[in-house]
Each structure stands twice: as structure tokens, then as C-alpha cells.
Amino acid sequence: MSTRYHLKDIILLALIGIIFGVIYYAGDFIYNGFSILLTPVGLGPMANDLTMGLWCMAGPMAAMLLRRPGAAFLGEFLGAAGEMFLGGQWGAANLISGFVQGVATELGFAVTRYKHYDWLGLASSTFFATLITFGWDWFRNGYAHFSLGLNLILLVARFISMFVFCGVLVKLIANLLERAHVIKPA
Amino acid sequence: MNPSLKLLLVLLLSLEISFTQKLVVNLLLIAVGLGLVIATRPGLLTLLRLLVVPAIPAATLSITIGLFTPGHDWFFAAVLASRVYVYVLLGSAVTLSTPPLRLARSLEQNAHLPAKFAYGTLAAINLLPRIVTAVKTIKAAGQMRGVTLSFWSPRLYFKAILSAITWSEQLAQAMESHGFVENQPRTVAQPIPLSKIDWLRFVGSFGLAQVVLIAFP
């Protein structure tokens, strides 16, 4: 298992992050729509949790593609660095979110000792990504001030979003890549 | 200011206000950020977008905190709303005032980031127009067969990844054929200065923020 990153790999990781960013610009509209619908009933922050899985997809995808330590982190972080210049509204603040999400998805593959680029690795990555990004929002987006009930609802919403996008969707894409012999079967 | 230091300063300040709950420092940073953004002479549309788009998350968070939490803490609601604007305005102040090439050069020369990371990422960023076109082409090709590809379609990502693999190989080859060698000492075409004044400004701005942070609510 190679752990070195060559120029080609770095470009690929950044490209994947940027491509995913371009595709899920649609995610912004969903976020705004959910926000406007849910705020009057007191569930506004759920828009953030429901779309969170979309933003974290590049990490697990990069890990499934390159299958080496650091891939998930670099895919997420370099993608964030790229999105910083896409005219995305968050500018340099992207780097902080990218860092947190990168560490979170990477940790999931690290605890499986980088041996499970399959359902187990993805499930573990989904689990850690949910917990760590939630912990980050605990401080940054004021989740600490919400009631316990609301926090539980938000945590479940986030886990579902992560599971659907970073788990199921990434696995389906990986399956297509396997059938095309781009990556070896797990 | 030196691009690497500027980026570091904004990241440090953004991190710091994520863990503190002070309103005055946020408003001050918003004013500074807005001033810096306007100083780059952005188009009216860019400026409007920077001011209007964050209003949605800002309003969502503050309304939820103010109306739907046990404490009804409107002060904290204002802190959260202003926090969103600090992230957006300070973050954009960096990206609008620093071209990607200059930042990549500075990160390589001043922050000693390995050149392959600085220029590899830069290469990917410069490919953006082609990426946007490629995603549109894949969607259009799907439409012709009566298949709608959206952000939940594995096939859309699959095809885009195939293009990315080809591009990354071609770009790496192109860079190497122009003399880029990994992990080798490089000469500098355009030095990015890192002066004492840069450091002074960095320490001064960060110090000032600490004073405001401690002194005001």
C-alpha cells in the first residue's frame, strides 16, 4: 500500500473536491428551501443537518478511489481549498470546515486500520463524520443552546443525511468505478 | 499584507470567534471585512451576493435561538448572526484580494508548503471552467437519452470522476514536461516578500482583536 502522494494524485484529489462542489451547488438551494420551510416551526437548523452529507462526500469518495491513509482528509481539504476560489460565499472560512470534515471522514477509515474500503469503512466514516461535525456545530452554530430534544432530532437528521450521501451514494459510485475497472474490487 | 500571513490571520480570527460569544468584536470584524471587500472594488452583484446570501443561515440560526430555545437568548442570537457575516466577509476579503497564483507562490515560499501541493491544487483550480462545462455536458448527454442526472445520481459523479482521472494524468504530465520535478529545489520566478511590516501588522491586528474581545461584551 503506497502512502506517498505524487503530483498526479494531488491534482486528482483537488479535482474531485472541486467537481463535487460544482455538482452540489444544488445543495445550496435545498439548504435555503429547507431553511425557509423549517424555521417557522422551530426546526430551522435542520436544513444544515439534512444537507451536511452532501458537503462531506468528497472525503470518503477519495478514500475509496485512492485507498491509502490521508486520502479522505486530502480529498475533503483540497476540495475546500479549491471551493474557496470558486466564488463560493464562504471564502477562506471554507478551509476550517474542510479541515474538520476532512479529519472526521479520515478518522472513520483510520479506526478500520485502512483495511476496509467497503461497507465497514464507509459506515465507520459516516459515524465519525456525523459525530465530529455535530460537535463542531455545537460551538460554531450554537447547538449548545438548543434543547436536548431538538439536538437529538438534529443528530438523527444529520446521521441520515451522512448515511445516504457519504454511505449509500458513495458506495454506488464506487460500484460503478469497480465495474469499469477503475478501482479493484474491495 | 503577505498572502500566507493574511490567510493565517483570518483563519485564527474565524476560529477564535467560533468559540467566544462576544458581539462587539464580531461587529468590528464585520466592519473591517466589509471595508477590505469594498477596497478590492468588487462588482455590485458580488457585493450584494455577499450581503444577501448569508442572511438566510444568519436569520435561521438567530430566529431558532431567540424564539424556540428554552433561554430565548436574543443576545446570543445576535452573536450567531454576526458570526456568519464575519466568516463570509473576512473569508471573501482574502479570496477577493489574493489571486490563487499569488497565494500558491506565497504558501510555497513563505509557509514552505511542498510545491506539489501548492501547484497541484492550483492546477485543479485553474481547470474550473472546464469542470463546469464537463458537468453540463454530462447532464446534457443524459437528457438526450431521456435520463435526468442530478446531484443524487451515481452516474453523474462516476462520469465526472472518469474525466478527473484523465485530466489529472494530463495535467501532471504537462507540468512535468515543463520541468516540474517533485521534491527538488526550485528557483523562484517571482519572490513574494515577507517583511517585518507584514509581521507587525499581523501581530498588531491579532492583538487588537484580543483587546476588543476581552474589553467588550
Briefly note the structural class of the backbone of chain B: mainly alpha
Main sheet record of chain A: none
User: What proportion strand of chain A?
Assistant: under 5%
Distance between the termini of chain A: 14 Å
Strand content of chain B: under 5%
Mean pLDDT of chain B: 92
What is the rounded Rg of chain B?
22 Å
Q: Provide the succession of SSEs of chain B.
A: HHHHHHHHHH
Q: What is the number of helices of chain B?
A: 10
**Structurally, how many domains make up the residues of chain A?**
1
Helix content of chain A: over 70%
Transmembrane segments (chain A): 7-26, 119-136, 148-174
Keywords (chain A): Membrane, Transmembrane, Transmembrane helix
InterPro entries (chain A): ABC_thiamin-permease_prd
Pfam families (chain A): ABC_cobalt
Describe, in plain words, how this protein is organized in 3D.
The complex is a heterodimer of chains A (186) and B (217). With 186 residues, chain A is an all-alpha fold. Chain A has one domain (7-179). Helix content of chain A is 73%, strand content 0%. The two termini of chain B are 29 Å apart. The radius of gyration of chain B is 22 Å and the shape is flat. The longest helix of chain B has 24 residues, at 74-97. The mean pLDDT of chain B is 92. Chain B has 217 residues and is mainly α. Chain B is 76% helix and 0% strand. Chains A and B meet through helix 1, helix 2, helix 3, helix 5 and helix 6 of A and helix 1, helix 3, helix 4, helix 5 and helix 7 of B. Chain B: It is a multi-pass membrane protein. Chain B: Keywords: Membrane, Transmembrane, Transmembrane helix. Chain B: Pfam families: CbiQ.
Short description:
Chain A is mainly alpha-helical.
What's the helix and strand layout?
The complex is a heterodimer of chains A (186) and B (217).
Chain A: H1 7-23, H2 26-38, H3 46-55, H4 58-66, H5 71-84, H6 93-110, H7 119-140, H8 148-179
Chain B: H1 3-19, H2 23-39, H3 44-52, H4 55-68, H5 74-97, H6 100-109, H7 115-126, H8 128-144, H9 154-177, H10 196-215
Helix pairs in contact in B: 1-5, 1-10, 2-5, 4-5, 6-7, 8-9
